[in-house]
Amino acid sequence: MTRRKDLSGAERQAIALFLLQNSSNGKLHYGTAKAATEKWGCCRSSIARLWKAAKDEHAQGQLVTVQSKKISKSQRKRVHIDLELISSLELHKRGTIRRLATGINCSKSTVGRWISKGLIRPHSSAIRPDLTAPNKLLRLRFSLQQVVYDRICNVLKFNNMHNVIHADEKWFYMSKVNHKFYLTPAEIDPHRTCKSKKFIKKIMFLCAVCRPLFDEDGSVLFDGKIEIFPFTEMVPAKRESKNREAGTLEEKPIQSITKQVMKDMYIYKLIPAIMAKWPQFASKTIYIQQDNAKPHIKDDDPDFRAAASANGFDIRIIHQPPNSPDTNINDLGWFRAIQSLQVQAVSSNETELVQAVQKSSGYGRRDYDHVESL
Q: Going by C-beta distance under 8 Å and a sequence separation of 6 or more, which residues neighbour residue 4?
């Protein structure tokens, strides 16, 4: 016989009526209690309690209900979420769970439960460039210039940008201020030191990349990686140390990136790299897209035009719209991909940092002919 834990109200009333119908002068007929236990799957003690309660109610002339006297478990009342109240709060008053809970006068655990259930949506807001009306007009003009007319098919197509090289600069640091590690429970926390967290050693790099080319089978004809150049110079060591003797040439970052430094980088580094790596079958009319930083040179620079028109090439400089980093491949994610690999390498000096960036970018370390002016 399977015993049940609890009987519903309807079952209790049905058992009581069954017992009353099979009784005479306040006594049950022989076998009635056993039949009730087998029919409703309960124990004899439960039948006995129900029979006693039914007799008492029947003797008092009441309706036989034999309701359970067990106190029901009352659940905690849930706090109702007021979405209109949350929306009416100012944004700076709901930047954290604590502030939001204070603003709507409830506990932090309640707000956390609402967030886990999806009733409140967390959002990370990033500052966007404040585009003025002229900026928007230039972005629109830049977008329209990417639409070309195909006279053969008589349709409008987007520019394939196979002859556009995206050039941009980025600082790469020797180490991060905050670095996350995963340690075993017995390991000692790593101890990292620096003279000043505001002046961590860093080197600026100029990266040039364009759209890769594939054949009909999907094989890579040109990976699109032109080069990544460090703004460094070879400087003789002024003093002797345990690592090198005085006068040893060391690679040091250029402290001030001026227009002349950028001009020499383009003429003596970037343009030769483009001419050396550019596919023979591709168009030699090439556009270098750069941002509007002050040290950048313009396309009408005579020295640049002389170097850009050599060997049958026609390399030109174009500028992306102001406040529009989303129009440059480097800012869209290429720099982030390089940095995520670069931070995995431990660099103790500038040369190792350059090698780590070169290896992470996939360009490979080269022996650069440093220009005297750099």
A: 40, 41, 42
Which is nearest to 320 in space by CA: 338, 310, 332, 302? 332
What is the tens place of the pLDDT at every residue in 63-104? 777 777 666 666 677 788 889 999 999 999 999 999 999 999
| Mean pLDDT score across all residues of the chain | 87
Distance CA 354, CA 365 (A): 8
Separation of alpha carbons 165 and 209, rounded Å: 6
Strand partners, 210: 165
45: alpha, beta or left? (left if phi > 0; alpha if psi -120 to 50): alpha
Cα separation of 285 and 308, whole Å? 10
| Integer CA distances (angstroms), 359 to 14, 206, 290, 345, in order | 83, 15, 24, 10
Q: Does residue 1 have a pLDDT over 80?
A: no
Q: Are 243 and 210 in contact (CB under 8 A)?
A: no
Q: Which of 234, 226, 250 is nearest to 374 (CA)?
A: 234
Neighbouring C-beta atoms of residue 207, cutoff 10 Å = 23
Strands 27-28 and 23-24: antiparallel
Question: Beta-strand (E) ranges in the chain?
Answer: 23-24, 27-28, 147-150, 155-158, 164-173, 202-210, 213-214, 220-222, 225-230, 232-236, 249-253, 285-290, 314-319
Task: Name the band, by pLDDT with cuts 50, 70 and 90, for residue 228.
Answer: very high
pLDDT one-digit tens code per residue, 12-32: 888 888 888 888 887 888 888
Tokens (6 digits) for 351: 């040369």
Q: What are phi and psi of 62, to 5 degrees?
A: -90, 165
Task: Write down the pLDDT at residue 75.
Answer: 65
In the block, tokens 């069954």 appear at 18
Report the percentage of the chain scoring pLDDT > 90: 48
